[in-house]
Design goal:
The chain is built from two helices and six strands, in the order βαββαβββ. A hairpin with a 6-residue loop joins β2 and β3. The chain starts with a strand and ends in a 23-residue tail after the last strand. The protein has one domain (3-78): RRM (RNA recognition motif) domain (Alpha-Beta Plaits, 2-Layer Sandwich), CATH 3.30.70.330. Strands 2-3-1-6 form a four-stranded antiparallel sheet. It is globular and about 50 Å long. The chain is of the alpha+beta class.
Length: 101
């Protein structure tokens, strides 16, 4: 069964292909995704790598966690499920302090 890993501390110039190639040293990579900022379209400096099995995932964690990658120190651990965010409340529907004339 595939295991998803969180990868933090990525250089902003890292491509998904480079991330996939780097993690392939530990085993079979089924997917590699870098999270991008919706507004700017630039990398947020973290992503997710899915390894084909748990053995390869554990090997990747031991090989790459706290190691240098492109001048930055990586954080690699097993990804946790995304927690539900509380709904946004208050405000003026995103319009700030709009005045009525």
């Amino acid at each position: 069964m595939a295991t998803k890993l969180y990868v933090g501390g990525l250089p902003y110039s890292t491509t998904e292909d480079a991330l996939r190639e780097h993690f392939a040293q530990a085993g079979e990579v089924t997917s590699a995704v870098i999270i991008m900022d919706k507004m700017s379209g630039r990398s947020k400096g973290f992503g997710f790598v899915e390894m084909a099995n748990d053995e390869d995932a554990q090997k990747a964690i031991s090989m790459f966690n706290d190691q240098d990658f492109g001048g930055r120190k990586l954080t690699v651990n097993e990804a946790r499920p995304m927690e539900a965010r509380p709904p946004r409340t208050g405000g003026n529907g995103g319009y700030g302090n709009r005045r009525e004339y």
